[in-house]
């Protein structure tokens, strides 16, 4: 059996070899159509389009991988913002509650710095300013009067000099008050001086009596001694002796009394002199105290008057810069405005426009001054009207809390142009327009963009609690 199989195999190999030696005729067109289906498929040559498609797909795949690895794409931080004037809009607000007297502007009106915008009724502030001015004048007159009163080397009436700007009537009134005070003080001193003179006269009279008695007592004592000797020898009466003795005792007693009176008079004079000195010192101390209080009043009233003048000046609301009036909120003369109420805003007209953009907290680490940016104005579709270019000028050092976006940082972006071409006409940009700012923060490989989500999930996966 095996011999038969080997013989059949040898025959098959010989026939195949013979077939290969003979040139194979290629069937074409209709010849293939008459073959069996399986043979037709085997005999039909493969289409070159398939090979080309596979080659193109493989080439594109390799090119994509190469581009993803070697190609670079820009990374951007996107921030929403709006156009603002370079000097920001100026909000016009009253300092205090007031009644509108006049409105001098309207919405859209151009104004110059210093132009009057709104007048508030100054009746109350004028009255307060006038009262303070009068109080200040009175305080300055008091200072002048008390300063003159303190003079020692010059007559106070001559030394009194009214401040500048004081009316003659007020100066005369103050001078009369000074004269009255001086006369009152001088009258008190004169009264004390009169008492001192009386005491001195009494003391002088007493001293004269002492001198007289001092001369009489020795004589009386001598007469008493002589009369006593005579009485002892029976040459005189005892009654005469006793009478003379009584006169001596009275004279000695009167001398003692008069000496005591001299002491009392001297003590009284010293008391009056101390009282006089105390009166002078008290007068000067009182004047000095009043002068210090008057100077303090002058200082305080001067400050209050300056504040009142400033408050009155602020009743006239003026334009702080050149610009255009917008958002006028008051239109009624006689209406009441509240403190810090926004009455209007002035949009500066001579300031370049810039953008105030809000950078998200996740992007702030890559945004810095000097980076270039592309600006899309929402009012003009960028695919049709194009983009604006700019540069980051400043980034805030701290974030502000936003209810929707969370923590946001403020960035200032300068624009290369403040107008945009619409058709064949340049349209100027205006403050308040919403924009989207795309800040170029760097570059990265294109493949990183596609691999980033997978790398992120790989790093964070299987770590949840």
UniProtKB/TrEMBL annotation:
It is found in: Cell inner membrane. One of its GO terms (cellular component) is plasma membrane. It is a single-pass membrane protein. Residues 121-314 form the CyaD-like alpha-helical hairpin domain. Residues 353-442 form the AprE-like beta-barrel domain. Gene3D superfamilies: 2.40.30.170, 2.40.50.100. The keyword Transmembrane applies. One of its GO terms (biological process) is protein transport. Keywords: Cell inner membrane, Cell membrane, Coiled coil, Membrane, Transmembrane, Transmembrane helix, Transport. It holds the Pfam family HH_CyaD. The chain crosses the membrane at residues 52-70. Belongs to the membrane fusion protein (MFP) (TC 8.A.1) family. This is Membrane fusion protein (MFP) family protein. It comes from Denitrobaculum tricleocarpae.
